[in-house]
Specification:
This is Dipeptidase. With about 425 residues, the protein is an alpha/beta fold. It is built from 17 helices and eleven strands. The strands form three sheets. Strands 3, 4, 5, 6, 7 and 8 form a six-stranded parallel sheet that branches. A three-stranded parallel sheet has the order 9-10-11.
Length: about 425
């Protein structure tokens, strides 16, 4: 692991964290953004590695080119807010919720994945003056220089490939450059980390099908994402992959013991092999909110009554929000805030080294905390890192430089013949 001479450790890091806490409004982050922070962010390539915003592309009347409001429609990313927050782009997710693992379920997942892939590409085509598909490390800087936002494509949950894993080469041709194997439950490829306490494994980590997927992703230069998979999958993926891996949206287990988070020993192992961990902002992964299985079931029923969370009209969303607020009061649910997010981020930087950390807030997929509700608040992170003692080079790496380096290294280790065949 490489360390910058000004990298903070031990008591010094603790002192800096305490000093940082005195410069912000309690819980919600910096109250002002300095000119230096703005200059650092403007110079850096700002990438988030887990944007679930494509789930909104099929929402009636919702357009990426319009400025929306988190308070009004719950969305967190759109083009005007990306400009305001300084986000240059990132990995836009082909997400498929895990369903039945039978022939019918696999076909349904295949079709859902292809539909989401086409929606991402259609968004780019319809907004060619604002967005551009990105497939290589150099694309990030080139697209930023052209005044547009980069659209790398990733897949969260390989469920759409269960029916036919060879579809990976088609996805690659269409722009896919990152893949995770599982989501919140096991599938044919890998065991999941679950949603709080890790469930009993099914495959003992990776299945043979999962191991084959790792080999094929390496051949094509597709980044392997361990987020949502079990600790055993992490160990096996790190050992099997010929290229560094990523955790596209994860937190620190040693800060909050949640099965979706990763422990310090594994963070160090990730860094030792050149990998990067991108820090998640989903409140339930940052602190113990008090959410019980009973609470989650009641919340599920609220959304089910409206036909599903993604299908809500603005009026229905307001009604659902009010009902969820009632549930929160009933169950005494606690809310995570910006300080909780920074606690994870600063801890992970200390453990991994700044060269191995980035941002993957899980926008439009459950991420966001009090004081960091949407992408317009990204400059707060820059200011907080500056207040904590990190310099321009380090902050630039965390904002996106480390992600670009990882893309470059993974693609450099690909099999040129496999890449050529997939693109033909």
């Amino acid at each position: 692991m490489k360390f910058h001479p000004t990298f903070k450790t031990g008591a010094m890091a603790t002192a800096l964290l305490l000093a940082f806490a005195t410069t912000v409004q309690a819980g919600t982050g910096p109250t002002t953004i300095s000119e230096r922070a703005r200059a650092i962010q403007a110079k850096a390539i700002n990438l988030d590695t887990h944007l679930d915003t494509p789930a909104l592309f099929s929402r009636p009347g919702w357009k990426i080119s319009d400025r929306h409001s988190f308070e009004q429609d719950g969305s967190q990313i759109d083009y005007p807010r990306m400009v305001e927050g300084g986000l240059d782009g990132g990995f836009w997710v082909v997400f498929t919720s895990q369903g039945e693992r039978d022939a019918q379920g696999d076909l349904k997942a295949r079709d859902a994945g292809l539909k989401r892939l086409s929606e991402i590409r259609e968004m780019v085509a319809a907004n060619a003056d604002k967005f551009e598909l990105a497939t290589t490390a150099d694309d990030a800087a080139r697209i930023k220089a052209a005044g547009k936002k980069s659209v790398y494509i990733s897949m969260e949950n390989a469920y759409p490939l269960e029916h036919d894993p060879s579809l990976l080469s088609f996805y690659y041709k269409q722009g896919l450059r990152m893949i995770s194997l599982a989501h919140i439950s096991h599938n044919d490829f890998a065991d999941s980390a679950g949603m709080g306490v890790a469930p009993e494994g099914e495959h003992g980590g990776l299945s043979d099908k999962g191991k084959a997927m790792i080999a094929e992703a390496n051949r094509l230069g597709i980044i392997l994402d361990q987020s949502h998979a079990s600790n055993t999958v992490f160990d096996q993926m790190l050992a099997l992959s010929k290229a560094p891996i990523i955790l596209s949206h994860s937190g620190a287990y040693d800060v909050f013991a949640h099965s979706r988070n990763i422990d310090d020993a594994r963070i160090r192992a990730l860094a030792s092999k050149g990998g990067v961990i991108q820090v998640n902002s989903l409140g339930g992964y940052l602190i113990d909110t008090g959410a019980t299985p009973e609470y989650r079931e009641e919340m599920r029923k609220v959304y089910a009554a409206f036909g599903g969370q993604r299908r809500l009209s603005d009026a229905e969303r307001a009604q659902a929000k009010a009902k969820i607020a009632e549930l929160d009061r009933k169950h005494g649910i606690r809310t995570a805030d910006f300080d909780d997010y920074m606690r994870h981020l600063l801890h992970i930087i200390e453990v991994a080294g700044w060269e191995h950390v980035g941002l993957g807030a899980d926008w439009d997929g459950g991420g966001g905390v009090e004081g960091y509700e949407d992408i317009t608040a990204l400059p707060k992170v820059v200011q907080a890192l500056l207040d904590a003692g990190y310099d321009e080079r380090q902050i630039g790496g965390i904002l996106g430089g480390n992600t670009v380096r990882l893309i470059r290294e993974v693609q450099a280790l690909a099999d040129p013949e496999a890449v050529k065949a997939a693109l033909e």
